[in-house]
Structures are given as C-alpha cells and as structure tokens.
Write a structure and sequence with these properties.
Elements: H1 2-17, H2 22-40, E1 46-51, H3 57-65, E2 83-87, E3 91-97, H4 104-113, E4 118-123, H5 129-149, E5 155-160, H6 165-173, H7 176-179, E6 182-185, H8 191-201, H9 204-214, H10 217-239, H11 248-265, H12 272-282, H13 286-299, H14 307-332, H15 336-354
Parallel strand pairs: 1-3, 1-4, 4-5, 5-6
Antiparallel strand pairs: 2-3
C-alpha cells in the first residue's frame, strides 16, 4: 500500500513534467528519480547481532526504537532466523541473533538467504577473556560465511552495553578480519548517536526506515534535506521557463509531494492531500505563488534577459522555505504559527542570497 501511494504520486509528477519543453524534461526527471527510488525501495534494515550472549537484546532493540518494542522474556529466545521488531506506523527492524551458542550451521540458512546490512558486536563488562575470545572467533566465522554468500560487505559497529568503550575497541581491533570492518564504537547509553551510527552504514534503501523507526530527529532532517534540495532545484528550473501559468500545477504538485515526503520521513503516514493542506495553511497556495511568480516577471519587463532567472529564484526560494517549514513542523514539532514564521523568513533569506 505504501509503495502504491508513492508510485501514484510520482507517476503524476512525471506526467506533468512531460508538458515541459523537451530540454527541461531530462534534468527534472533526474532529480525525481533518486527521490522516487529512496521511497519505493524502502525496506526494513537487516542487522546481525554478534558478541556477548549475556548482553540484553531487549535493551538494545528498545534503545534503537526509543520505546518498549521488545520484551524482557524474549532475551532467552534464539531461533537462528530473522526476527522482526515493529512499532506500528513507524517501521520495522529485522534482527538475526547470531551470537553463541547458535552454531554457524543453524545460522547458515538465514545468512545465506538475505545479506546483512550491518553487524552489531555487543560487549558486557562482566565478559571474561576466555568468553570474549570465543565470541570473537564465532563473530569471525559468521562474517566470513556471509561474505562467501553475498557480494555486500557489511560494516561492524561495536556496542558496549555497560562496559568501557576502550575494551570493546581493543577487542574488535585485536582481530584483523573484524578490525577492517569496524566503523565505530558507540555505547548503549548514547542512543541517539547509536541510531545515527547504524543509519550511516546502512544501504540507502533501509536508511529511511531507520530514520522513521528510531525517531532520531537529526537523522530525519538529513534525509529530509535531500528531498528539499532536489525539489527546490526542480521548481527553480520549471519556473525559469518562459511558459506563464502553465507550470503552476507542476510547481504545486512538486511542493505538495515534498511536504508529503517529509511527513513520511518524520514517521507519519504519507498523504499528498495533507501536504497540499499544509501549503495552504502556510499561505503558500497557488494564489500566493502566482503573485510571486508573475510579479517577479513583471518587475523585470524592462530587462527581459533577467526575467526567467529571477522567476526561477523566486520559485526556488519559496520551495526551499516550504521545505524548511515542513521540517520544523513535522520533525521538530513547532506550532503552525511558528512554521509560518519560518516559511516567511526562509523565503526572504533565500531570495536575498539569490540577488
């Protein structure tokens, strides 16, 4: 259902783009494609747990989600298969607990069927040297098997549960096979940083799900900024064309789609209709856009060569301002009145920078 919503929205946008001059279609479609791919290919991250069996899987999962998704009694269960942890309306995380005592033979089916996106090596302060050595041996075997089964080479993030980060660092970097794959060491108490460290190492198709399920605002803003940048470029390019009035359905559709996408990134249900309603609530409706767009053209009638450039800058500034206001409202949680203020301020700032 989610993919159908995105597909329908972006198919409509692509149909509108076909109305533009031929020379403009290709660059606009190039900007649409990565956004469409990001949302249509969105899937749950696949994370493999390595390291100390005594470390609480429940505590880890709940820290990533920021709420109680896993239950304490589940810590003792180890099925040697991918397990889904879900918070309704926000997202799903798929986890394979590959720690001892699960033998590699029982893990081979799960590891061979789907490639891990990331390994988390858990470490407890109470873990003895002998137990740690066995954990490292087992982790090396799991990683090697996955490497033989898939082309992808997932990274490792060390997660000290209640131990010194230095101990986890020394342990992982003491094994060459694991050291070269270890990207960072983040303690469980640094939940926000842990979510970001995980997301950075995930493939693009699972980063969006990670941003939604973790509720990490910085991570959500990073992804939202990618959307804003592309849509701003598209709107500026469309508005720069000498086709008065005909491009407004395209501009408003792009802007409403951008807002709907930011809503989805924030963990809400994606809705182009609500995106359009947000534009109207900001005062960024078609009427406002028409005044800005045609006003900019009228102001430069005596210097026609600048007309399209200024009009494009006005549309780009307005789109950028809408995006920033949407991030503030849907991700930061500011009031609608504050979002309107951000819209007006950012539109003015962006226009000044263009002048």
């Amino acid at each position: 259902m989610k993919s159908n919503v995105f597909l329908s929205l972006y198919e409509k946008l692509e149909a509108l783009v076909q109305r533009l001059p031929e020379g403009l279609r290709a660059p606009i479609l190039r900007e649409i494609t990565p956004i469409k791919t990001l949302f249509l290919l969105q899937r749950a991250p696949r994370i493999v747990l390595l390291g100390d069996r005594a470390a609480s899987r429940t505590a880890l999962i709940n820290a990533i989600f920021g709420t109680a998704v896993a239950r304490d009694g589940e810590d003792a269960l180890q099925s040697a298969s991918w397990q889904a942890f879900t918070q309704r309306g926000r997202g799903t995380l798929r986890v394979l607990d590959a720690r001892r005592p699960a033998p590699l033979a029982s893990l081979s089916r799960a590891l061979g069927t789907e490639a891990p996106d990331l390994y988390l090596f858990l470490h407890e302060a109470a873990s003895g040297k002998r137990g740690l050595a066995d954990d490292l041996d087992h982790a090396t075997s799991v990683v090697a098997f996955a490497d033989r089964s898939h082309e992808a080479r997932a990274k490792i993030v060390g997660v000290p549960m209640n131990s010194d980060a230095v101990l986890a660092f020394d342990a992982l970097h003491g094994r060459r096979e694991l050291a070269e794959r270890t990207s960072s060491i983040v303690t469980l108490t640094q939940a926000g940083l842990l979510s970001e460290s995980i997301a950075v190492e995930l493939p693009p198709e699972s980063q969006l799900e990670m941003a939604r399920l973790s509720g990490n605002k910085e991570l959500q803003k990073q992804i939202a900024q990618v959307v804003i940048k592309s849509v701003t470029a598209m709107c500026a390019a469309v508005a720069a064309q000498p086709i008065p009035l005909a491009d407004f359905p395209i501009l408003t559709s792009l802007q409403a789609g951008m807002v709907a996408s930011i809503m989805h990134v924030s963990g809400r249900e994606m809705s182009a209709k609500l995106g359009a309603q947000f534009l109207a609530a900001l005062g960024a409706n078609i009427g406002t856009g028409l005044v800005l767009r045609e006003g900019a053209r009228a102001a430069v009638k005596l210097v026609p060569v600048w007309g399209s450039a200024i009009s494009g800058a006005v549309a780009g500034a307005g789109t950028y301002a809408i995006g920033r206001a949407a991030v503030a409202y849907f991700i930061d949680g500011v009031s609608l009145a504050d979002a309107r203020g951000i819209f007006r301020r950012k539109r003015k700032e962006k226009k000044l920078l263009k002048e």
